[in-house]
Amino acid sequence: MSSQFSHNKELPRIRKCLSDSSPTSSTPTTKSLRHERLSRLSLSGSSDVFNDTTTNHAQSYFSRRENRLSARKKAEEETACNDYKKMYEKALATNQRLKSRLDTSRQELAMIQEQLQRAQKGRKGESNMLETEKKESWGLKKKISDMEEQVKVKADLKMENQRLKDENGALIRVITKLSK
């Protein structure tokens, strides 16, 4: 009876130690830590049968825990994939809704601009014509002055071109005399 009592007394302490560890994956470091804990537990036990049972319980506990964690990770990954699909579908729906709003807004803008142009034409009928005529006459005067400048530049270029032709002819004559 006393061995059962000590067995029951030590079991919560062992469970507490086992629950303190949190192996998230079976890496070499995790396995070595688990092995160290199991070896400590086996050294502190009172009998070999108890140690074997404790070791088996601990190993089964760790394997069950790893299985639960891996199942949880798989479920989270699947949920994440579904979440991405849902987020994509929501974004797609939002984009479509915004595009339709944009099209509607563009149509409204075009209608409003047309109304504005009609209203401005009605108000400024005659004054607008005078301003347009003034702008046209100013533009024509500017074109005339530009053309006069171009004629002057053209005349200067013709004179320089003729001078260069004369020099070129003279140089050709000198070269032909020298080459004879």
Please tell me about this protein's structure.
This protein is mostly helical and 180 residues long. The protein has four helices and no strands. It has helices at residues 2-20, 28-44, 48-123, 125-179. Helix 1 (2-20) runs parallel beside helix 3 and helix 2 packs antiparallel against helix 3. It is elongated. Mean pLDDT is 77; it is low at 1-25.
Give the helices and strands, then pairings:
Blueprint: H1 2-20, H2 28-44, H3 48-123, H4 125-179
Helix pairs in contact: 1-3, 2-3
> What composes the largest sheet?
none
Beta-strand level of the residues, as a percent range?
under 5%
* Rg of Cα set: 49 Å
Number of helices: 4
Order of helices and strands: HHHH
Strand tally: 0
**What share of residues is helical?**
over 70%
Task: Quickly give the structural class.
Answer: mainly alpha
Which key features would you list for this structure?
180 residues; 4 helices; 93% helix
Produce a short descriptive summary:
The chain is mainly alpha-helical and 180 residues long. The chain has 4 helices and no strands. Helices cover 93% and strands 0% of the residues.
